[in-house]
Amino acid sequence: MSDVQLATRIDARVKKAVEKLCEARGLKMNRFIEEALLDKLEELEDLSDLAALRKEPSRSLAAVLKDLKLHGKL
Length: 74
Fold this sequence. Notes:
Strand content: under 5%
Structural class: mainly alpha
Number of helices: 3
Shape: elongated
Number of strands: 0
Largest sheet: none
Distance between the termini: 46 Å
């Protein structure tokens, strides 16, 4: 993976909080920010997956248990 530079503007208080946290925990700020962005991307992807799952038909517990018994899994 090649590295590129990302420039953005954030509130000075947020930057100071990130700097303090990274210094206190011995973290590199670049890595901290990259991991935070990756976490947010994953979270948003999970939300879109959840929206798709909610559109799928559901089954009653009784139907699921009956299916499991029928297939010898219960």
